[in-house]
Design a protein that fits this description.
It is a single chain. Helices cover 40% and strands 32% of the residues. It is of the alpha+beta class. It has one domain (3-216): Alpha-Beta Plaits. Strand 6 and strand 7 (159-165) form a beta hairpin. Helix 1 (16-34) runs antiparallel to helix 3. The protein is globular, with a radius of gyration of 18 Å.
Length: 219
């Protein structure tokens, strides 16, 4: 079972340069040292903020607990907080018909994420709808459902359906179709509540250095 640690924030105005220097010079190396492993970062271009999402991939719950209770992690947050606002975090586990062993880093893709809570008593029907209709239709329309997550620590909405597309134009084309509108109308009217969606672009501040490090590790 994969777990994913997501952190959300906005960058303080007039602190963008100091923030970028801190992320590249301290944040990424410290996360790597604690074992959380940065997997990517995204910027919300359409939808509700906070605007920055950073995701990391602990090996398991015990390594996650060890990392976030370390002095290094605590000190890192103390340095991060003066540069940002609207901070929150969630710990997700892989959930539903799409289960992964580890979050997979993908460069150069856009995310279309849908967040919601399942209505009480509707989980079996929701799962059937997800597998039989929702995922096939989304993928036929051009957005591949790559992961489904359930928050086990943090506030709701608790379900995150993560979609991926190589171009934002493909996402825009999909969500403008009558078929997509009918699909989400069925989802929201029968199975879920507190629905939100966001289009996220890769920031490349985090995932490119991480990717380059992986390529050069054996050299």
């Amino acid at each position: 079972m994969a777990i994913l640690f997501a952190q959300y924030w906005d960058v303080m105005e007039n602190k963008e340069k100091a923030y970028e220097d801190f992320i590249l010079g301290k944040y990424i190396p410290t996360f790597e040292k604690t074992g959380l492993r940065i997997a990517g970062a995204y910027y919300v271009v359409v939808g509700k903020g906070p605007r920055i999402t950073s995701v990391s991939t602990p090996d398991d719950l015990s390594s996650f607990q060890k990392a976030i209770t370390s002095e290094e992690y605590s000190d890192l947050l103390e340095e991060l907080f003066p540069l940002i606002r609207n901070y929150s975090s969630k710990l997700y586990k892989s959930y539903g018909p799409i289960r992964v062993d580890r979050y997979e880093l993908r460069l150069g893709v856009w995310k279309f994420n849908q967040y919601f809570n399942i209505l009480p008593g509707m989980e079996p029907a929701y799962r059937e709808f997800l597998e039989a209709e929702f995922i096939p239709v989304m993928e036929r329309l051009g957005i591949k459902v790559t992961n489904i997550w359930k928050a086990i620590i943090g506030s709701g909405p608790f379900i995150n359906v993560e979609g991926t597309s190589p171009r934002i134009e493909e996402i825009a084309k999909t969500i403008a179709t009558d078929e997509y509108r009918a699909l989400t109308r069925t989802l929201k009217s029968r199975y879920v509540t507190d629905y939100q969606s966001r289009i996220l672009a890769p920031t490349r501040r985090v995932e490119v250095p991480y990717f380059v490090k992986g390529l050069t590790a054996g050299l």
